[in-house]
Amino acid sequence: MNYQNILLELQKYYANLLIIQYNGLPKATATIKMLVALICANMILLQIQNGFDWKTAVGQQLDFIGKWVGVDRYITVGLYDNHNWFSLIEITGATSQFQGGFAEISNFDTNPGGFLTPELGSSQLANLSDENFRFLIGLKIIKNSIAHTCKSIDDAIYEYSNGEIYTTWDLTNRVLTYNYPTVSGGIMEVALVKGVLPCPPTCSVTIRGIEE
Fold first, then answer.
1. pTM, whole model, 2 decimals?
2. Could you give the CA distance from residue 60 to residue 50 in angstroms, rounded to a whole number?
3. What is the pLDDT of residues 103-122, one digit of tens each?
4. 190 located within any domain
5. φ, ψ (nearest 5 deg) of residue 46
6. Going by C-beta distance under 8 Å and a sequence separation of 6 or more, which residues neighbour residue 123?
7. Contact 192, 180 (CB under 8 A)
8. How many domains does the chain contain in total?
9. Phi, psi torsion values for 50, nearest 5 degrees
10. What digits encode the pLDDT tens for the residues 28-55?
11. Which of 28, 34, 99, 139 sits most deeply, having the most CB atoms within 10 A of its CB?
């Protein structure tokens, strides 16, 4: 039975429930049928709303919600392995753990001087799982909706993570630290890079893994 037939059956059923002095009267019957149609239409809208509940949505539904709140599920993954590579360093002196150089006597055996090629230094996009993406969406919703005061952030993050993540503040240096179980390290690092961790505009954010 399609939706139209279901609607007609419901209208007929509820119209027949009119008390005797109104039963069968055209205007009263039309009013009941209109109300039934309106209620059914609203139920469809509620189903659409429930279909995009970020706590239960999956796949493309989550992608749409992510666009609405301002975060996506894509992360850049480097193709480095755990090896020091010889590479030229910019004048700023910025280096990474993967940049090596000419070996010295003290590290000849541990600092191989292989060259870092464009292929090894490139990156690829990876998709977050629905579970991890949902976690980021929840953080972004918090960031979008709360006042960025110390107490508001403390309370919101503690409640959202069921106490597993908590915030500490260094007000002298204006640094907000998110403390989390080390098992959640990967997604917390992504959250930091994605900028979804709530923070007052005058503070910087750091993360710190805590051994359980």
1. 0.60
2. 14
3. 444 544 555 554 444 444 44
4. yes
5. -65, -35
6. 76, 77, 78, 79
7. no
8. 3
9. -65, -30
10. 999 998 988 887 776 666 666 666 788 8
11. 139
